[in-house]
Amino acid sequence: MERIQNDLQEIVDYQQIYRYFIETVNANLQHINDNQGSVFCDFIRKCYGTYAASGIRRHSKIGDESISLMKLLDQLKKSANQFTYQFYLEQYPLKDDKIEWQKITFKHFSKDGKSLSEEIVEKDMQTIKDIAGKVSNFVDENIAHLDKRGIKEDITYKDITDSVDLFNKITCKYIGLITSEGYETLQPYIQGNWKKIFTVPLDIRKHE
Questions:
Q1: Alpha-carbon span 75 to 72, nearest angstrom
Q2: Tally of CB atoms within 10 A around 101
């Protein structure tokens, strides 16, 4: 869970930086066009798109030696009848002076309140396939490999955004179950004024 969280957190972090970059570009299109900035902007778009799409593909697959969100869900699904509420209480015991958050958390993953429901986990897995599967297939055909049969289905930046947002939501959901820590989003708060770079001019000639 920790490896999955850290990896997806970085993707979500880069997404927020990319979103601000695009907002800045769109607000300064005339200036960018007047100064031949489209080459650099296209470079940033392609780098982010390739990076994010590869991450989406990484967490959409179930491999023997790999760590991924989909593999974690597959393991939970296969062991659903063993993942009982009693077992959960052994990991996170009740305390007399606390709210019984264990039951509140567990009910989101169980239909009978006694054990993990295979159907609930399967539904999350199917949602990932429906939304992120298209991006994952594109990576297989055009990024990880150049499929000689060509691209069967192209993708958009919206497909990438929707997939990253979905991974963010589902990962936070299962972090709550497995670690007992509550997360609304994986998006971190970046320390310092990281947006300042967009407010000052850059000129390589100053260093020549």
A1: 5
A2: 14
